[in-house]
Specification:
Elements (H helix, E strand, L loop, with lengths): L1 H16 L22 H19 L3 H13 L2 H4 L7 H13 L7 H10 L7 H20 L6
Helix pairs in contact: 2-3, 3-5, 5-6, 5-7
């Protein structure tokens, strides 16, 4: 019985913590079909740009992670207008991932960005604690090659 329970817990934890990635579109305030948008070309450009960066980030791409971190913290209004959901906690979590991933391209600017976007201008102590926990989950998901949810 103990063996069965241990296997059940292990199976559940693998499924639950292997963690499927949220689809990139979940972070956008855009129609699923850009054809219904006021500016279909611009809508599609924004979707493609965000999906490229997000998909790169979740597969460990350094520049994708930097772009996603920045946009989640600030909204990237110059690129996305008001079409991107900001999430400063998750933006900070991506900064922690960048610094802790050992990317060969990471430099002082990444440390400075983490200090800024995880600092009091963007997050309080609770937000930073949440970001640290999310960063650990993100790193595990990247390392395990978690799949994208549909």
């Amino acid at each position: 019985m103990k063996r069965f329970l241990a296997l059940a817990v292990l199976a559940w934890s693998c499924n639950a913590s292997a963690g499927d990635w949220r689809p990139a579109k979940d972070y956008l305030f855009l129609a699923d079909d850009c054809a219904t948008s006021d500016d279909p070309k611009h809508c599609q450009l924004m979707k493609d740009s965000w999906e490229r960066d997000y998909n790169g980030a979740i597969t460990g791409d350094y520049q994708g992670q930097r772009n996603v971190a920045y946009c989640l913290s600030t909204g990237c209004k110059e690129t996305y207008g008001n079409s991107l959901r900001t999430n400063p906690v998750l933006g900070c979590a991506w900064r922690v991932v960048i610094v802790n991933s050992g990317h060969l391209d990471a430099d002082k600017l990444d440390g400075d960005a983490m200090k800024l976007y995880c600092g009091p201008q963007y997050l309080d102590d609770v937000g930073r604690t949440m970001a640290d926990a999310q960063a650990r989950t993100l790193l595990q998901m990247i390392q395990s090659g978690a799949r994208l949810q549909n």
